[in-house]
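User: Good morning. I'm curious how 2-phosphoglycolic acid would be positioned relative to this chain. Could you predict the structure with it bound?
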Amino acid sequence: MASSLTAAGTQPSAPSFSGLRRTCLKLEAAVSFSHRVNSSIRLVSSSQRSPRGVVAMAGSGKFFVGGNWKCNGTKDSITKLVSDLNTATLEPDVDVVVSPPFVYIDQVKSSLTDRIEISGQNSWVGKGGAFTGEISVEQLKDIGCKWVILGHSERRHVIGEKDEFIGKKAAYALSEGLGVIACIGEKLEEREAGKTFDVCFDQLKAFADAVPSWDKVVVAYEPVWAIGTGKVASPQQAQEVHVAVRDWLKKNVSEEVASKTRIIYGGSVNGGNCAELAKEEDIDGFLVGGASLKGPEFATIVNSVTSKKVAA
Ligand code: PGA
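Assistant: Good morning! Here's the predicted structure, ligand included:
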């Protein structure tokens, strides 16, 4: 008893994670938010921040980490991955979601801890029916999914899905109660042509035009050049777009949505680079591909939420 009191008492003033969130102080939130957006000065100061300083979250949403398993795995490899996830220690203050291939969702649902929610990797644009090869939102719900990933660059650029179609899918999924991980991101040539913001805002607008509410939307900024390439965006590159996305939401949707909506980063996130990325104020989590196929490494990425805490 005494020792546990002592142990607890060793860090009496250690700030809690949620205490760092700017929206806990509403007035300060409003003021600092307006100072923050559109501020290139802030980007500079953010990149020069002392590593031992307080790192706050600009948004008010809970840290969110999704694992996108894509078209990978077998019954055996997924059994092992689920077992590794079930035994991993995960920080409590994180929403954790995995997105297995459709054919393994049932296996995962029946064996994975309830601590982790399940997402589909895609869904049909409306009610199911005569749509060969498609999976409906109703079916995803029936099998226990709470989320769906929409607008992933592999669906945009390999399969050819267009902004408006993706927006309609999002609206339908939300109307049926699924959460949507709404992906946006520019290709390398678009970045090099200085069109990063234009591309991201167009994709964002297609979601905004379609969805009735942002309550269950998580925006995933995934630069296409960083996906599966091992070429991760620098924390500053990612932060720059995340700030811009939050600012876009503020101007085009509402200040409340800008604050509440999680904006997560995806593209070659791994156990080695997640902590530095997570320190950026507007990075509210990650969407992870390759590294989510390894349970311990995925757990490290989930637990990078701790780099948002004070290191003073
Ligand atoms: P990656 O994929 O982590 O393998 O780059 C990310 C994604 O596509 O969501």
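The first helix runs from residue 2 to 9. The chain is about 40% helix and 10% strand.
Let me know if you'd like a different ligand tried.
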